[in-house]
Amino acid sequence: MSGYDYTMERLRDLVMTQYQYAPRQAQMAAHGFFDAMDNDGNGSVSYREFKRFLVSEGFEEFSDKDLFKRLDGDGSRGLDFWEVMSLYYILRSDKPFCTECDDFLLETYFVCNGCRGGPYYFCNSCCQEHNYEMGGDHCYPVYDQPPVHQMQRSQTTNSMVMYTPSRSTSRSSSVGGSSSLRTAYRTFEMALNVANLAVGAAACSIM
Ligand SMILES: [Zn+2]
Ligand SMILES: [Zn+2]
């Protein structure tokens, strides 16, 4: 990634809005989670603290420095509250990164099941390039919330529009993580689950 990171800015905007409309209990739990992750209490999460959390919760694949740097868009070398909320969104939304350019696929993205070793995930421009290179229509769109006409169609013929990426959701936690951080993380998750249940149809939101 070079230049300005629009994806991370949009993600930051999104989590800010979700926070704003979250119940007070979920907001408190979010701050509790951030404070527990900020082990030395200096108000920002260092790479060391970031990695410690990810490894202990079984998200080791996200613990490289690239993601930390991208989240830390303001270059302060530490994650603020909104950057940690963005991280949480990335972990829980189960949305993939573009196979080609490695951008986080926050909005509608495309999946190729036609090539060996797939599925592969693409952003819009990489999808066009991929289809062009492969000489066919390899990529199918994955909608955040399928348009109504797509949903009706999917019930009868086209099941591709409802395709959801099958990344493993059952994470195994290794022993040795900080128990207070784990407790804060679980509390945050539970508060969000309660909030989502209260809203009812909020399956697509994390807060
Ligand atoms: Zn891409
Ligand atoms: Zn393909």
From TrEMBL:
<keyword id="KW-0106">Calcium</keyword>
<dbReference type="Pfam" id="PF13202">
    <property type="entry name" value="EF-hand_5"/>
</dbReference>
<dbReference type="InterPro" id="IPR011992">
    <property type="entry name" value="EF-hand-dom_pair"/>
</dbReference>
<dbReference type="InterPro" id="IPR002048">
    <property type="entry name" value="EF_hand_dom"/>
</dbReference>
<dbReference type="InterPro" id="IPR018247">
    <property type="entry name" value="EF_Hand_1_Ca_BS"/>
</dbReference>
<feature type="domain" description="EF-hand">
    <location>
        <begin position="25"/>
        <end position="60"/>
    </location>
</feature>
<protein>
    <recommendedName>
        <fullName>EF-hand domain-containing protein</fullName>
    </recommendedName>
</protein>
<dbReference type="GO" id="GO:0005509">
    <property type="term" value="F:calcium ion binding"/>
</dbReference>
